[in-house]
Amino acid sequence: MRRVAVTGLGVISPIGLNSQEFWQSLLRGRSGIGPIESVNCDGLRFANAAEVRGFDPLLWLDAKQASQMDRSAQMAVAAAVQAVESSAIAFDPLRSAVVTGCSVGGQPTEDSVYRQLYEEKKTRFDPLTIPRIMGNAAASWISMRFGIQGPCFNVSTACASAAHAMGHAFWMIRSGSVDTALTGGTEAPITFSMLRGWEAMRVVAPDTCRPFSRDRRGMILAEGAAFFVLEDMGAARARGANIIAEICGFGMSADASHLTLPSSSGAALAMRQALEDARMPAADVGYINAHGTGTPANDPAEVRSIRSVFAAPPPISSTKSMHGHALGAGPALEALATVLALQHGVLPPTANFNEPDPDCDVDVIPNAVREQKARAALSNSFAFGGLNAVLAFRAF
Amino acid sequence: MESTSETDLLSRVIRVVAKSQHMDASAIKPESTFAELGIDSLDGLQILFALEEEFGVSIPDDAGKEFNSIARVSGGIQMLLKAKSEPAPAS
To answer: Hey, are the CB atoms on A260 and B42 less than 8 Å from each other?
Structure first.
């Protein structure tokens, strides 16, 4: 069976506008969470998020293209271009795929046109409204940018979207249906209507994201994009590519129990599937990038699920404490943290950690990075709707 | 005019819970807990929303977490209505 290499990385995130900056922030425990600047939050019960600051789409796109895209697609193309440049790959158009994870589509566009429609009573919309809003916009723009004509699609599975996307891209290469893939996720959910929706769910922290800490008060919303070049290991070696890590397993499951309350058995099932898919003993796993939302419900359920899979759980951390929860793009940001941890032999911390919680009794790498090589790692993603996706990586 | 006497408030709370959960109001007793009524966390969110709409109050997240029985809901709403009717202290 083919093996699959990760040979290119790109990211636009609240803690860095390229993978070097992103990694430096993780090493320093630097959080991108702060007062929301792009939306007036008067009257909301929370006012903090992890926004992408200083992103200039014109560094990556010409003015006309940029104007035809929603922010979610702009960030995606920028991250994809970085990934391709760092990989120095030349795509065979018919043997390459684009698979994206994006859950809520072009929200900034949607928010702005509804404002025009209902507030300003406009009777005419910009004709590109629909192509900006569609959830597959990023996948389509990326395929056009690189002339990729093979399988190209978007997956929308809430906060597991990019993990499902990357898992399928990996499987397509491993099975031989394509040789290379550009895959990852993007999301731009910081709009007034989305914030109101999350406020009503009462899961957003008024302060910051403190995963696994006893005083955690919820999640923090984020935006961003991360993309990866995946390719057949043999071809990558033959062209002398810089192989950053190996993606070696993917598992998915459904809780089939409750719309929003996580089940530890569903999460455990996805982790077991990923290990089995990778033909990897649990003892090989030296780090887990947890889903770790920082909500009262998620964190203990996730720890229970990890304890049920691992007799001696490896260190885990939630990098959401720094880059926030970017919904469909979250798994891509976290897969990036995982791959960089394997590459550098350093485990990123769980930031903002104050106090151990007896219900989250595992090593969560509180507040400070740990110089510790992991041979392999998992990245967990568990979505509303009870949909679980877990990616497995090996150090190379 | 809206009545906020305790029994009226209680019957309004029961009506709101019953409507939001598609339950028969007669199945809900003043002493019922949400657990007894089979109301889970997501149901609870919908009830908080319905209560905010019915009584014109805003239920803070921390207070909302305590709303796990009919008695607690009634008591909590009564306090919020009282706070609403009193002028804010001059700062």
So the answer is: yes
Q: Is residue B18 domain-resident? A: yes
- Residues A234, A264 within the same domain: no
Residue B72 belongs to a domain with what CATH number? 1.10.1200.10
Give the residue from B61, B62, B67 with the most A CB atoms within 10 Å of its CB, the best one to mutate: B61
**Look-up: residue for tokens 């810089």?**
A242
For residue B47, what is the nearest residue in chain A, using CA coordinates? A200
Range of the domain at A187: 4-238
Nearest beta carbon to residue A201 from set B40, B45, B60: B45
How many CB atoms are closer than 10 A to CB A381? 33
Structural domain boundaries, residue B45: 6-83
Give per-residue pLDDT as tens, A100-141.
999 999 999 999 999 999 999 999 999 899 999 999 999 999
Q: For residue range A258-283, what is the model confidence (pLDDT) as tens digits?
A: 888 888 899 999 999 999 999 999 99
* Distance from the B32 Cα atom to the nearest Cα atom in chain A, whole angstroms: 23
Residues 6+ positions from A39 with CB-CB distance below 8 Å:
A190, A191, A192, A195
Say how many domains are in chain A: 2
Does residue A184 belong to any structural domain of this protein? Answer: yes
Q: What is the DSSP string of A203-219?
A: -B-SS---TTBTT---B
Active site residue A164: no
Q: Which of A102, A152, A159, A248 is catalytic?
A: A159
**Which residues in chain A have their CB less than 8 angstroms from residue B64's CB?**
202
Q: What is the CATH number of the domain that holds A354?
A: 3.40.47.10
CB atoms closer than 10 angstroms to residue B43:
15
Residue A168 annotated to the active site = no
| Pair (A230, A269) in one structural domain | no
Q: In this structure, is residue B57 part of a structural domain?
A: yes
ipTM of the complex: 0.77
B61 or A251, higher pLDDT: A251
C-alpha R_g of chain B? 13
**DSSP element (H, E) containing A40:** none
Asked if A93 has any chain B CB less than 8 Å from its own CB, the reply is no
